[in-house]
Amino acid sequence: MFATNPFAGLSASIPPAVMQTYVVIMIVLVAAGTLFDIVHKGSAKYFFDNWRKSKGKGATQVGGSEWVSLAIQTGLVDVLASGEFCNARRRIAHLLTMYGFLIYVITTAVMVFGYPTSAAPTPGILPLLWWIGGLMICLGGYWFWFFIRVDVAAEGNSPLRIMRADLFILSLLASVTLGLIWAFLQPRASSGANVFFGLYIIATTVLFASVPWSKFAHMFFKPAAAFEKRVSYANGTRSNLPGPADKPEQFGSAREQPRHY
Fold first, then answer.
1. Which pLDDT tens digit goes with each residue over 128-162?
2. Gap between the Cα atoms of 44 and 28, Å rounded
3. CA distance 133 to 106
């Protein structure tokens, strides 16, 4: 099971070109949805306006070498280590979900485009990584949903309470969970495999088509916002966004319990 490419098995009933076209469409939906989100919410305009103001008001000029240093710090601390989260449990859950998502998506694309049929044997490491990535998403995502969300953990609300902001995490968990169930049932020629595959496609389409209304686009904008915070802190203008992850003592809000998830 863990060494079997589920998409190669699918090629017996669905042509590889159809699977590949579907993946391309999902990528286009993410790109288009992200652009729509940026334009509709004006986040890009706000970011660049704030960037220009901070550069003009800065008491200290940030040199080229410092820019490189700040960019490296942003990548290592804010992006790769999710340093924005002061709560250790939430950071771990976020890292599990983030890295699991990257592993899951990359291995899916490699198997669909590189090994779409059984005629080209799939290296066993790819399906194994696909399963590991999916299970990491489930572990981090369900842990967050049932035990870490502030309205559940701090406010005592029901974990079944759903808001529009929950669209991304719920569609992600539904897509991955249904995909893993389908992959588990497929080698067993179970009649339920087709049902779960259909549900998997529906959930995946919702995940990638709902970018303008979910928090999916945030992952593309957050690195730029984190870099702007560090530059503003370095030149003395102090961005109106929370302070850099490794400088919480300068910004009281950085130590506060997050209010929104």
1. 999 999 999 999 999 998 888 765 555 556 667 77
2. 20
3. 10
Nearest alpha carbon to residue 15 among 112, 104, 105, 109: 112
Measured distance CA(78)–CA(134) in Å, rounded:
23
Tokens 């076209």 appear where? 21
Q: pTM value?
A: 0.77
Q: What is the largest CA-CA distance in the chain?
A: 68
The H or E element spanning position 3 is: none
CA 116 distance to own-chain centroid:
25
Residue 152 backbone dihedrals phi, psi, to 5 degrees = -95, -50
**Cβ contact 109:144 at 8 Å:** no
pLDDT digits 0-9 by tens, 61-117: 666 677 688 778 777 777 777 777 777 888 899 999 999 999 999 999 999 999 999
Residues 229/58, Cβ–Cβ less than 8 Å: no
Question: How far is Cα 95 from Cα 90, in angstroms, rounded to an integer?
Answer: 9
Q: Name the residue type at position 52.
A: R
Alpha carbon of 55 to those of 8, 45, 48, 63: distances in Å?
Answer: 53, 15, 10, 12
Q: Which two tokens stand for residue 30?
A: 């993410």
